[in-house]
């Protein structure tokens, strides 16, 4: 997104991606109302919404036998009053396609950053390796680490990480989908288990939340025990759980919550998960990453254009984005501690946790989680120009 915005403003940008495509299961599928608003500001919303997606205007889950609605996006003050569920690789392909229209934009796939180039205390580029074994030295006025929660950029820049911690990991797996299955994304919470199912057309992308480090114990119980568990959480899949034939069909996604004390060095900035790894709680990490990108473009566009991007400019990006990051991570930690950890440790029947009862009693209150999830704290808007000549 940052590459797109800077190239749209007439700057020269090289984006490198270590994989050959954007096809990754783990990123989440949520395109938030705030991102749709940005698409509108960029004049590409209709084109974007013409791509297959699922518009979800309410978000809730089953706690034991009770079904509740937690967030109601129809109550928020945004153009699109829903979350668009779209596999993130479609979203990223769309952004890349739009960005390629600008002369200054170049996207190099199969190109992995492996080190930074430093000169006189300033980062002046990256060393990258391509799939066919070439080593590239890419020089730049600014290096942006948007390389996720295992960021090589932040590690090589020796930026200090504050580890906040998460009590869970996620097991990620696929089960085929039949026509008569429910359409919408499903969430189910029961004693010792939290289970999420994303509709991806002909299959369900399923996430089973487990206590951190709990995979070994599950493996000791055997794959049949996992299949029974999935079938009890989503009974309509009982005729298909045998598709999970071995542990090779199940990926462990390690959940991390952390943030950098300082997001920048002279000539270098981290954004998104590289600056603050987000928990999957609430499905908001993508929104924060996009908002960081927009804020960075707004603040850095002029200094970059004039070749005078300083540490002070980079500090302004961190200052702008620290409040939303801390607030969102703070809420994620509260939910992890008050709801997720006790649920995963419980062997008693689960009912709706007391803090969430408010959303049953006062439907209007569902606008609050909808605003936090769908828009977030301190939403950003496109302030950079389009330069076509
Ligand atoms: C299990 C799980 C489920 C989640 N579900 C959701 C959800 O539903 N909604 C939501 O909003 N958030 C969700 N999140 C959080 C979300 O995935 C992240 O917050 C978000 O993807 C961060 O975006 P990013 O662009 O900063 O990093 P990433 O999405 O991690 O992207 C980093 C990119 O950099 C590339 N890369 C990495 N290293 C290098 C390198 N050395 N050189 C070149 N390229 C490199 C990677 O291949 C990748 O394409 C979830 C997280 C987890 C763990």
Fraction in helix:
25-40%
The CATH superfamily label of the largest domain reads FAD/NAD(P)-binding domain
Globally, the shape reads globular
Strand % is: 25-35%
CATH T-level fold name of the largest domain: FAD/NAD(P)-binding domain
Cofactors, ions and other ligands in the entry: flavin-adenine dinucleotide
What can you see in these coordinates?
The chain has 389 residues and is an alpha+beta fold. It folds into two domains: 2-59 and 72-164 and 256-337 and 366-374, FAD/NAD(P)-binding domain (3-Layer(bba) Sandwich); 168-254, D-Amino Acid Oxidase, Chain A, domain 2, CATH 3.30.9. Helix content is 33%, strand content 26%. The strands form six sheets. It has a seven-stranded mixed sheet. Strands 2-6-3 form a three-stranded antiparallel sheet. Strand 15 (193-199) and strand 16 (203-211) form a beta hairpin. Helix 1 packs parallel to helix 4 and helix 8 runs antiparallel to helix 9 (311-345). The radius of gyration is 22 Å and the shape is globular. The mean pLDDT is 93. The structure holds flavin-adenine dinucleotide.
